[in-house]
Design a protein that fits this description.
Aminopeptidase; about 260 residues
Amino acid sequence: MDRDELLALFDRQMRRNARPDGPGARIEQADGVVRQVCAAEHGWHGILWSGLDDATADGVVRAQVAHFTALGREFEWKLYSHDRPADLAGRLRAAGFVPEPAETLMVAPVSALSLDAGPPEGVRLQPVTDAAGVDLITEVHEQAFGTPGNRLRERLLEQLAQDPDRIVAVLALAGDRPVSSARMEFCPGTDFAGLWGGGTVSEWRGRGIYRALIAHRARIAGERGVRYLQVDASDQSRPILERLGFTALSVTTPWVFSAP
């Protein structure tokens, strides 16, 4: 499958025909968009796909702002660089959306990945299945990314309690200290699983932990029959993923609107 075919498959399965990403979430199709709305505030609220043109874009953007504002929810318009119209980013900015850092959509066939990478000496990988482990993941997240982990913690606790088969969460421990964490979310009915997290505390970066966490999750994905792994890669992780065999398909930017 070439790059364009793979991107079309991703758009069709993961965006146009998206499934809810967790308990309490629902997918809605309205006004030329596919969106997710969650009962819980800590869930992800936003636009997954849009089929817009120059004539319809502004009206649809206003309609989505009105919809989520009425719900009292901050929401994200997950914009991809191949979406149309070409100036949709500017239209979102004009409507009051604020961009967060862009990431690169990268995809790799599980069958093409090297799965033999292990953690460095003195580091072990441990699955996370309970609240104590989630607390450690939250700790790593806050140290690695410098952002609050409250919403992540609530989301992980909910997933592990209500739909544990859809998520794999793992910690990298140096002795008893958590130094990195990552997770994988399965998407039933599709060919994809998503890799998320992958944060490592600063003094443990550059030692191969990120690569080991990719290989660990890829092995599990292969055992589950997943064909492709998908990552929204930062500028720091993109070179590592390219060396591992991931292909860049598009650039995705979260445009966030905070309801008054």
